Amino acid sequence: MTTITLSPHLRSHAPLLLPHHHHHPPMSLLRHLTLQRHHHHHRRRLLSIAAAAVKQDTTVWTPAPLSSVRSAADYLFHVTIDVSDTPDVAASHTHAGQYLQLRLPDAENSKPSFLAVASPPSFAAARGEFEFLVKSVAGSTAELLCGLQRGDVVEVTQVMGRGFDVERISPPEEYSTVLIFATGSGISPIRSLIESGFNTNKRPDVRLYYGARNLQRMAYQDRFKEWESLGVKIVPVLSQPDDNWTGERGYVQAAFARAKKILSPQATGAVLCGQKQMSEEVVSLLVAEGVSSEKILKNF
């Protein structure tokens, strides 16, 4: 019989070194392995949390004063932010449909708001300002923002996102029809798109289906004439209008389903921004009509 002699510093680990072909491992070993696994899992979790924190900390926040805050419609506000002292932030707006994050320096527990820039990119270059259409939602950073005044300071990130990829519906000669759909504050990046120009006057059929509960909740009515002069036919759609309303009633997708009038699906593009259900139903209608999903643009 062979005798195995263990050196003193290995004796405490004997259960790990001796074979146990016919016996269950001692409970102390099971406890040791369980603790070890728990320790590794805990360490991995801490590392992932630390990595996430580091990633989060890379967001650069820039202070910027408010130029104005005024009512745009019921529950909607025009908010203008002065970024003239931070040209790198101003220059970061390059495409209609992009957005930024905004937070209030003093509101510790409020989450940053994601806001689509309503003004066209050229506006930041010319005026050093960003304009937004902000919906005041109870308990949100947006609600606090809508209660501020000229001169109050907020913090913003650079503009981000790819925006609307209008190259996919260019040149205008090949995409003669562009159908635009917006609901509520989703009109904000659509304003940026229309006013930044995508050759609407070279396309014979550009329609904007714009949905709101009633006229009191419909922003930018003062801009409709200007948009029409650029070649955009505006179709307001009200879901709860008063008795005097003679235009389209119901939801945007239903108004479009009644009209359609797509002469050539291959020459048709679309742009959508707003309520999720509206977007999904409009996409289904367009694809059923033969419009390529590659030509249906969203800003996210």
Total number of beta strands:
12
**Which residues sit in consecutive blocks of at least 5 with pLDDT less than 50?**
2-22
In what range is the share of β-strand residues? 15-25%
Q: Count of helices? A: 10
Quaternary arrangement of the chains shown?
Answer: single chain
Q: Mean of the pLDDT scores?
A: 87
Task: Give me the strand/helix succession.
Answer: HHHEEHEEHEHEEHEHEEHEHE
Described by strand count, sense and barrel closure, the largest sheet is: 6 strands, antiparallel
Span between N and C termini? 75 Å
Percent range of helical residues: 25-40%
Shape: globular
**Strand order in space, largest sheet:** 4-3-6-1-2-5
Radius of gyration: 29 Å
- Derived from helix and strand composition plus strand pairing, the structural class reads alpha/beta
Question: Which descriptors apply to this entry?
Answer:
six-stranded parallel β-sheet, 23% strand, six-stranded antiparallel β-sheet, 300 residues, alpha/beta
Could you explain the architecture of this structure?
The structure is a single chain. With 300 residues, this protein is α/β, with parallel strands linked by helices. It contains ten helices and twelve strands. It has helices spanning 8-11, 14-17, 27-57, 87-91, 121-127, 141-146, 187-196, 224-229, 252-259, 276-288, and strands at residues 62-73, 76-82, 99-103, 113-116, 129-135, 153-156, 177-183, 205-212, 233-238, 248-249, 268-273, 296-297. The strands form two sheets. It has a six-stranded antiparallel beta sheet with strand order 4-3-6-1-2-5. Strand 1 and strand 2 (76-82) form a beta hairpin. It is globular, with a radius of gyration of 29 Å. The N and C termini lie far apart (75 Å). The model is unreliable at 2-22 (pLDDT under 50).
